[in-house]
Amino acid sequence: MSITKPSLPKGTRDFSPQEMVKRNYIFDTIKTVFKKYGYAEIQTPSMENLQTLTGKYGDEGDKLIFKILNSGEYIDKNSVEIIQKITQSFQENNVQIGSFDNSTNKVSTEIPVSLDDLNIFNALSGAENAKTNYRLLINQLTPKISEKALRYDLTVPFARYVVMHQSEISFPFKRFQVQPVWRADRPQKGRYREFYQCDADVVGSPSLLNEAEFILIYHEALKNLGLKDFTIKINNRKILSGIAEIIGKPELIVDMTVAIDKLDKIGFDGVTKELLERGFSNADIEKLKPVILLQGANEEKLLSLKSVLATSTIGLKGIEEIETVFNYVSKLTTHNTQLATTIELDITLARGLNYYTGCIFEVKTNEVAMGSIGGGGRYDDLTGMFGLKDLTGVGISFGADRIYDVLEELNLFPASAAQGTKVLISNFDEIAELYALPILQQLRAANISAELYPSAAKLKKQMSYADAKNIPYVILIGGDEMNSGLLTLKDMESGDQQKLDIAAIISKLN
Amino acid sequence: MSITKPSLPKGTRDFSPQEMVKRNYIFDTIKTVFKKYGYAEIQTPSMENLQTLTGKYGDEGDKLIFKILNSGEYIDKNSVEIIQKITQSFQENNVQIGSFDNSTNKVSTEIPVSLDDLNIFNALSGAENAKTNYRLLINQLTPKISEKALRYDLTVPFARYVVMHQSEISFPFKRFQVQPVWRADRPQKGRYREFYQCDADVVGSPSLLNEAEFILIYHEALKNLGLKDFTIKINNRKILSGIAEIIGKPELIVDMTVAIDKLDKIGFDGVTKELLERGFSNADIEKLKPVILLQGANEEKLLSLKSVLATSTIGLKGIEEIETVFNYVSKLTTHNTQLATTIELDITLARGLNYYTGCIFEVKTNEVAMGSIGGGGRYDDLTGMFGLKDLTGVGISFGADRIYDVLEELNLFPASAAQGTKVLISNFDEIAELYALPILQQLRAANISAELYPSAAKLKKQMSYADAKNIPYVILIGGDEMNSGLLTLKDMESGDQQKLDIAAIISKLN
Q1: Which one, of B469, B484, B478, lies nearest residue B18 by Cα?
Q2: Is B351 annotated as belonging to a binding site?
Q3: How many CB pairs under 8 A join A and B?
Q4: Contact B94/B176 with Cβ under 8 angstroms?
Q5: Which of A235, A367, A438, B418 could cross-link A360 (Cys pair, CB 3.0–4.6 Å)?
Q6: pLDDT (tens digit, 9 = 90+) per residue, B494-504?
Q7: Are the CB atoms for A437 and B332 separated by under 8 Å?
Q8: Tens of pLDDT along A219-238?
Q9: B401 has binding-site annotation
Q10: Given CB atoms, is B88 within the 8 Å cutoff of chain A?
Q11: Can you say how many angstroms the Cα of residue A368 is from the centroid of all Cα atoms in its chain?
């Protein structure tokens, strides 16, 4: 085997013990809150059938799906058989060759050609059509060589799960899921090709209590992670529909929201320019202005919106939904006056508008400059893509990687030492090692994470090992200690040393 | 988008909430023991560069590696560019076309052909060479369309990790890793294409204390999982080498071990037959017989082996290693007389002999008919495959899926209810719902996992929901309850109902 310096695929990461402790801290904190609110964990396979995933994320998304080569077939000894199978399948499917339309980027299906073994390959010759034919071959080949792909998010697999397991599920189904997803995005700072999603969704319950509880879940999880100042933004797709309706351009709702979503970045003048480009008139923008620039407390905003949207049934419905959510939240937080200040009605919030049908959420920290650290919303037809109609869903997601960066920057991770080895026993020589073994056993029997350095290396090396592993205590055992039964316990942070018997050490470390 | 009934790729599984609770119980129990013995968690990416993996698992293993198509390129609009790149690469690499040798199944490299855009495709025409050329195209194409693969085990990625991070690591490096691996094996009962491995390894320490501690880790983890009767088998590659040396056939060590490894299944007669077929004489087998049929306690076996291997340096070294491990174990278990009975020296144990260089482990439960539920051993040159020499490693693995089946069969999983929602508040109507909200908040503030049924559905439906989710308590709130402040707490298992105020409920549930 050839020896090359190993490397990692672009956009992927190793996690060291120190990083894992921190990542687990984030995941465990969030999971604990999910469970407290009645959410149960599921897991789905890393690979899904390609047809489960394609068409669910738009054209751009489809391109970012990592596809898996059918196993082994293309490098084993059966290649001739494989070719025969492909050929046969070409024939059975009446595959068309030779009419690839560059403008539509599609294979023309006008002229079906019946093929045999040789025709496929013959069709590949000829200077004029070489590239086109090659593209065709690849196009025809791709579904033959890849039928599986890595999951792109947790939502589509969840919908697939619900449809496949509908008879076993007692609805409403409250599930959480923390697993990696893969996207063939161009890697850049903070964007990885493999990253964890951390989702909770409930399917089969239209109650807005769920929305309210998600706000509480965000609040409780982020508070438990030590964040002090963050904003949970809320909006409602129906309010956006109402606004588009009021200005008489319901068909331009997507253009409208794409433009006003940028208010933070490009300001009102920028938004105006974009709205004009996207087919709105100055009169429209005049009507939009008070809505876009909505100021004040949530109650004031709702009051203004009620008057603006007075004639839009759907718009008023959206306002009512937001009010119901606020009501639930206030009843659920009677003892917690601080929470209300972190919720903000933001009608510029859109987040994948085509997906959401009701409330939309987004969470931002105000302590560090960082994009959103969470988001979600309601989608009325979660499982429709797999033929199960009328199941409404609402869910949220935590951006674990960004939360990691935020906690790191604010120095909010708890001392990692607590999670690793608590005490290292030094190893002076064979006699001391033998003496140490029952002590090691006693420490572990008391549930203290303990190690004996596995060889009589220089003490300096053993100490560096304890340092590198963040081990807070070292037990030194030499001749004196063995004679007296009083072991030297060294506190690695303060450098203090104490002579204690093993019972005293155990009680100190516990 | 087309709606098809969704399905899962062959050999992959969804895990329901009930299954996840059980799986997490297994993983958490094992991880807790790993940590107690000073092992720290790492994670590596799901995908590795293809060249990191190929050549590490033998020809058969290589075929079972799931390869990932280079992202999106083959279905996006840049196919022409891609073709140009491939063509260029064909040219630069002086790719040979047209001389595929069917007998050796290899591409003849006798006649290099310089190619251009068209030559590739032209080369693909012609009746005579069509299949060969097609095969060639695929062979040349495969490395172009796939450069990444899903990890096949946790050991090679760990070796890669150690080499890449050697400057940050303080050796000996004790790591554990619990992540899925993927193999394109033919799925069958108990064999999946995606499954979790659960490994602990230490690299950079030749001390046999590590081997002894792995025995303790197996013992403690399996005991904590509730298993009562299991055997930890141990062998040593050096003893096997010694035996082959003594009978004068050191070059046949692999044949010898493959044959005697089957003793359990085919008996001594079967082993004799296989040894004869594999080049051993009747005289050899006569010498082997007492070794193969070694009986008695470990001490007796060691005594017999010492006399049989008296003239083999390597054999005696193997015996010494086993004795050292036994010694360590006994010193580490002075307060635990039960442990020793579960360790068995089994010189028929081989387990991937070419891999291991010292001690070899395998664990079997005696309570259920099941293959091994764990295994491992020492490999003297773990990181040599990536150019970092002289780092010895030793590690073990738990077979989580099999352990799951064992615990299920022996009914050893703890009541899963403890991990889910503890109490459901019923929802009679809007007024009762409003009344319930602060109660829900109080329950959760007391860290009790609680839910309010999100709509005023029929009580029967709400009760079924609690049943299906294994929720042990339901709080019923109707007119009486709201008037008196005494809520009805129903114990779902016994059916008993009690009227209690919220403080009493909280203290009862905590």
Answers
A1: B469
A2: yes
A3: 347
A4: no
A5: A235
A6: 999 999 999 99
A7: yes
A8: 999 999 999 999 999 999 99
A9: no
A10: no
A11: 20
